[in-house]
Amino acid sequence: MEWIVKSEIELPAVLKEMLETAGNRKKWMFTGDLGAGKTTMIKQICKILGCNDDITSPTFSIVNEYEVEKGVIFHLDLYRLKDLEEALNMGIEEYLDQDVYCFIEWPAVIKPIWPLDAVQISVQILDDSTRKILFL
Hints:
The chain is of the alpha/beta class. It has a single domain, classed as Rossmann fold. About 25% of the residues lie in helices and about 30% in strands. The chain has helices at about 10-20, 40-50, 85-90, 90-95, and strands at about 1-5, 25-30, 65-70, 70-75, 100-105, 120-125, 130-135. The chain is globular. The N and C termini lie close together (about 5 Å). About 30% of the residues are buried. The mean pLDDT is about 95.
């Protein structure tokens, strides 16, 4: 599926549709250039899922955990990891093995161990406020 989002106001409706389309798939891999809006999308999805926490990019902590009524949501930013071994050493498999939402930015480093049913989201910058979002 593909969407052209011209403003952040349009984003919640698109993300709700993505959640419905994903069904029970809870591992989401977000790719796109710096500033494309990956974190913004994850913030909105977490709100839709009932998270009231302050949602921030885990660029330096690598993992943020947010509480929701049905448990937790993990938000990972793997930008700073060098390779799969480093991801394995930080315990990536523990996050992927749990039956909870796990939103991962910059997931290429762990591509060999992506769950087979992982949702893939590609965000492309078209202009300052317009994004092309691909859902695979």
